[in-house]
């Protein structure tokens, strides 16, 4: 009996001795789990702090931060909770939601990549796809009321000057583009509108990038006969092209072009298209002649601008300490048709003007009652630019020949030769915020000379080169060109104030 009693009493003691190591093991496991969780939370806090520093750098200005530099922190895995751990873990402050906020903020930062990325697949996707959205918008107040109300052409005909005093959404462009099926298969769709010209154009492109030195594209684009038509819009010194540039340059048409940088610093664009300017023209009105144009430019001291949409901008917004220069040339040839029946005095081809402000294909442009039906246009341009520490100087010289006339009557001349230049200089008096500039241009023409000079201020009111307000006052003498989405009209002679807001992301 005594032995049995002893055995009964010893059983709980033995059980307690066996449970003590198990409880100690549970406590130790819980401590390990808590230490691991604290370490993960510490790393998450470091990631959150890095994100805050990134956002602060982005607010100070573009290019100041690299999203890729932000450290990656692994998401905490759900720990296996030992018995009794709930009460101990409740004392640990849980900040895991901050990691999700940090990740969401990072995704928002990544969404803007030289435009808004609507959707992009991973690099290893079965169907690679990128869709990016860009917008250019220009709102302008223009006042040309100081001008004379009439001008006289070289034949003595008095013509009206169309003065203006208005506010217009001068240009708006919506651009969707990217690649599909293969990163080398590029596409874009553009809606271009001008309230001033009451015009809407829907354009598209399809291209294939064979290499950095050769991309072949077909679609609608600017003819590369002037520096302002080679990936520079709207990042000019002023918010509009100069009077000389508008007078000499070609326009926009459909065609096929090759583009690339086969040698570092040396780029080209070769274009074959329908004509100098076929905006708003139906295909059945475009003639059979093909236009040829090409541009070559050299940047021997490095890229003229930062990568991205504003790569070829005229101003030195980023104020690099390095001197950078760009040297270029372009040539264009086109056999042009007036696109209208001879019983219409006003042609649909508005790409060519005489230096006295009269359309080349208008009835009576060269002789009373005589209409030119066809003519050959050739234009050679030479351009140069320099940037250094916020200072930028850009210039271009133009030579234009128009000959081989086909008309319904005798003409007093066989050919027409005009030449001229543009020159601009800008400087950031407050880096990346406030720039002042001066510019001028001149046309020495067959039937008269014209000139202009202007001064202006550009205020970048947010920390990016993609948005600014521009105020300008220019003096124009006998403008030889009319364009409803430009500030110029034929015969314009006087002071012209302008105020503009530009957004180009």
What oligomeric state is this?
A: single chain
**Ends apart, CA distance between termini:** 96 Å
Main structural class: alpha+beta
CATH class of the largest domain: Mainly Beta
> What count of helical segments does DSSP give?
4
* Helix content estimate: 10-25%
Please write out the topology.
Blueprint: H1 2-60, H2 85-89, H3 96-111, E1 116-120, E2 129-143, E3 150-152, E4 158-160, E5 165-180, E6 182-194, E7 199-211, E8 214-222, H4 243-248, E9 252-263, E10 266-273, E11 291-298, E12 324-337, E13 372-388, E14 391-407, E15 415-430, E16 434-445, E17 448-459, E18 467-477, E19 494-504
Antiparallel strand pairs: 1-2, 2-5, 2-19, 3-4, 5-6, 6-7, 7-8, 8-9, 9-10, 10-11, 11-12, 12-13, 13-14, 14-15, 15-16, 16-17, 17-18, 18-19
Helix pairs in contact: 1-3
Features:
two-stranded antiparallel ribbon, 505 residues, Porin, 17% helix, disordered N terminus, alpha+beta, 2 domains
């Amino acid at each position: 009996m005594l032995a049995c009693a002893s055995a009964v009493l010893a059983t709980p003691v033995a059980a307690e001795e066996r449970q003590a190591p198990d409880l100690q093991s549970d406590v130790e496991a819980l401590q390990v789990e808590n230490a691991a969780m604290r370490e993960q939370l510490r790393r998450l806090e470091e990631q959150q702090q890095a994100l805050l520093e990134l956002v602060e750098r982005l607010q100070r200005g573009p290019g100041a931060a690299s999203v890729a530099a932000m450290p990656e922190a692994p998401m905490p895995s759900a720990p296996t909770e030992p018995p009794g751990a709930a009460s101990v873990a409740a004392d640990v402050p849980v900040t895991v939601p901050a990691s999700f906020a940090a990740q969401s903020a990072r995704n928002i930062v990544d969404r803007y990549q030289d435009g808004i990325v609507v959707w992009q697949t991973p690099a290893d996707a079965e169907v690679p796809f990128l869709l990016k959205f860009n917008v250019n918008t220009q709102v302008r107040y223009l006042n040309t009321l100081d001008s004379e109300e009439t001008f006289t052409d070289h034949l003595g005909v008095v013509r009206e000057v169309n003065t203006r005093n208005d506010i217009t959404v001068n240009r708006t462009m919506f651009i969707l583009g990217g690649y599909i099926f293969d990163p080398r298969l590029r596409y874009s769709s553009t809606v271009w509108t001008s309230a001033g010209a009451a015009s809407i154009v829907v354009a598209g492109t399809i291209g294939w990038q064979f290499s950095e030195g050769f991309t072949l594209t077909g679609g609608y684009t600017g003819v590369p006969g002037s520096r302002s038509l080679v990936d520079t819009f709207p990042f000019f010194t002023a918010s509009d092209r100069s009077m000389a540039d508008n007078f000499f340059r070609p326009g926009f048409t459909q065609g096929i072009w090759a583009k690339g940088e086969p040698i570092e610093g040396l780029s080209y664009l070769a274009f074959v298209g329908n004509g100098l300017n076929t905006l708003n023209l139906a295909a059945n009105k475009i003639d059979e002649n093909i236009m040829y144009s090409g541009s070559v430019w050299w940047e021997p001291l490095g890229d003229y601008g930062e990568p991205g949409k504003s790569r070829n901008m005229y101003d030195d917004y980023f104020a690099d300490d390095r001197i950078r220069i760009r040297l270029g040339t372009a040539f264009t040839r086109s056999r042009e048709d007036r696109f209208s029946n001879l019983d219409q005095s006003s042609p649909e081809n508005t790409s060519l003007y005489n230096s006295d402000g009269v359309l080349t294909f208008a009835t009576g442009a060269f002789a009373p009652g005589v209409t030119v039906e066809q003519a050959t246009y050739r234009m050679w341009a030479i351009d140069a630019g320099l940037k250094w520490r916020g200072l930028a100087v850009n210039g271009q010289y133009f030579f234009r020949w128009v000959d081989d006339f086909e008309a319904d009557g005798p003409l007093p001349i066989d050919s027409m030769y005009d030449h001229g230049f543009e020159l601009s200089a800008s400087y950031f008096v407050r880096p990346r915020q406030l720039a002042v500039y001066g510019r001028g241009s001149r046309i020495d023409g067959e039937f008269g000379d014209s000139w202009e000079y202007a001064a202006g201020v550009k205020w970048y009111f947010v920390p990016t080169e993609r948005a600014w307000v521009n105020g300008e006052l220019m003096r124009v003498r006998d403008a030889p060109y009319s364009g409803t989405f430009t500030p110029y009209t034929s015969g314009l002679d006087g002071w012209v104030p302008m105020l503009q807001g530009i957004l180009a992301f």
